[in-house]
# Entry
Amino acid sequence: MREIVLIALGAILVNNFVLSRFLGICPFLGVSKKSSTAIGMGGAVIFVMTLASAVTWTVYRFFLEPNNLDYLQTIVFILVIAALVQFVEIVLKRFVPALFKALGIYLPLITTNCAVLGAALLNIERNYNLLHSVVFGLSAGIGFTLALILFSGIREKLEFCDIPDVFQGLPITFIAAALVSVAFTGFKGLFGI
Amino acid sequence: MWDSIIKPALVLFLVCAVTTGALAVVNRATVDVIEQRTNAEQEEFRKQVLDNADSFKQIELGSGNEAVKNVYAGYRDGELEGYVVNITAKGYGGDIGMIVGVDKNGTVTGVIIGDNEETPGLGTKVFEPDFINQFEQVGVNDELTVVKQNRKSTNEIQAVSGATITSRGVTQGVQAALDITKKLMEEGN
Amino acid sequence: MAKPSSKAFSVLKNGIMKENPVLKMVLGMCPSLAVTTMARNGIGMGIAATFVLTGSNIVISFIRKIVPDKVRIPVFITVIAGFTTIVQMLLNAYLPDVYKELGIYIPLIVVNCIILARAEMFASKNGVGLSILDALGMGGGFTIALLIIGSVREILGAGTWMGLTLTKDIIDPAAIMILPPGGFLVFGFIIAVINKISVLKVRNKEISSGCGMNCEGCAGQSGENGGDAQ
# Structure
C-alpha cells in the first residue's frame, strides 16, 4: 500500500510528467488556453493513459517477453496506443458529442503525446507489476491534468496583461511554465521520493 | 470492397511485417554485441572496484535487502580476496545502479556508479572522485552519516552542495553494501 | 544556378532556417527541453532523430503511391517506430554512453511530432531525393536548435560547455538552468530573441518581396544572439 501511495504522489507531484520530465509538452501548450478544454483534454489523457498502461503491460509481460520479442516494444506499444485513441474517439463521438466537439483535433494528438508512451515505457523499465503500472498511468495522467489546469488558469490571466511585444505569445507562455515548474520542484524530496 | 477494406488492411499488414522482419535482422546483429559488451563491462567494473582479485563467482543470496541486486566473491589464485556488491540505490531522479568493492578485511576498495537518472551536471557531481573517494577506507563496522560540511571522520560523508538527496542515496547504497558484506563475513562465506 | 538544384537547396535550407522545427514551428518540444541539460546530449538526440527522420522520409516517399489514405497514419507510425527501434539497438550496441544518457527519450523519438509532420507534409507528397534533403534540413535544424538550447543551459547552469570548464571557477553557475524550470525559461528567452529579430525581418520583407530567401542571415544570427542575450 505504501508503495502505491509513493508511486502515485511521485507521478503527480514530485516527478510531474509535464513539469519535470517534459513529457506531453505539445498538448500542454496547445490546449491550455482555456480551463474548460484543459479539463476535457486532461480527462481524455487520464483515461487513455490508464488504459494504455494496463494493456501495454499485459502485452509486454504475456506476449513480447516470453517470446523474446522485447525489441518490438516501441512499435507494439505505439500501435496499441493508436488503437486505443481511435477507440476513445469513437466512444466519445457516439456518447459525449459535446466533449468530442470541444477536443476536436486534439484527440488524435494523444497518439503522439509522449506522456502516454512514456508512461508505458517507464512501467516496463521500472519492473512495475500490473497494479503498479495502472496506478502509475493513472497518476501520471492526473499529474498531467493538474499541470494543464493550473497552467490554463495562469494563461487566462495572461490574456489581460500588458506584455512587451517580443514576449507576447509563446515566450511568455514558456516563462510562465518555468515558474510553475519552479513551484513543483518544491515537492522534491517529499516523502523521500 | 477491395479499395475500402482489403487493400488498406493488406498494405498495413505488409508494412508491419516488413518492419518486424527488419527489426528482427537488426536485433540479431546487435543482441550479441550488447550482451558481450554488458558482460565485459560488468567484469571490468568488478576488477576496478576490487583490483586484487582476478576471478569472480556470484554468491546466491536469500531474499532480504532489496537494495542489494547481487554479490560476487572475488578470488586471487583461489583465495578469497573480497566481495563486489551490486546495489540499486535511491537517488533524486530514480534508481542509481552502484557497484561497491569490499576487501576481505571489510574495507571499501572502490565504488562505481552505473545507470542513473540524476540531473546531469548537478546530481551527477556526486559521482565524481571528490565525493566518491570519501568512501575509501570506510569499513564494515562504520555507521555512515551524511553531513553538509566539515567532515571530521571517515564515517562522515560530506554531501555535494545542491545534491544532498543524491549524496544521501549513494551513501545509503554503500552502507547497504557494507551491511551485506558484514553478514557474509560473519557467516564465513 | 540550374532550377532543380536551387529547389533542392531551398528544401535543405528551409528546415534549418525558415521553418526550423523547434525554433520556428515549436515542434518536438519534449526532447528539446528534456535532453538539453548538456550540449553534447542535445547533439546526440539531434543526430538520432535525424537518422530516424531520414530513414522514415525515404521509405514513406518510396511507398507513398501504394499506401491508401485510410491507413496512412498507422503506416507512417509503424515505419517511424521501426527506424526508432533500429537507432535504439544500434546506440545500445555501439554507443552505449549516448544510449545511457538519452535513456527513455530514444524510444520516444517515435512520438516526436517533427517526424510525423514531415512524413505527412513532405515525404508523402514528394520524391525520394527531395525527401532526403528535407529530412537532412529538418534534422539539421533540430540538431542546431538543440545544440543552442543545450549550450545556453550548460554554460549558465553548470559553467561548462561540451565538458570544458568555462565559467565554473569564476562564477557560481545557476543550477536551476539545468533543472526542468531552466529548460522552459531558456527556451522562452530564445523564442523572444527570435521574435525580436523576425519582427524586423517581416518589416523589411514587406518592403522588398515575399520570396523568403533573405532570411538566411537573420536565422543564423538569431542563434548566436540567442546565446549572447542570455
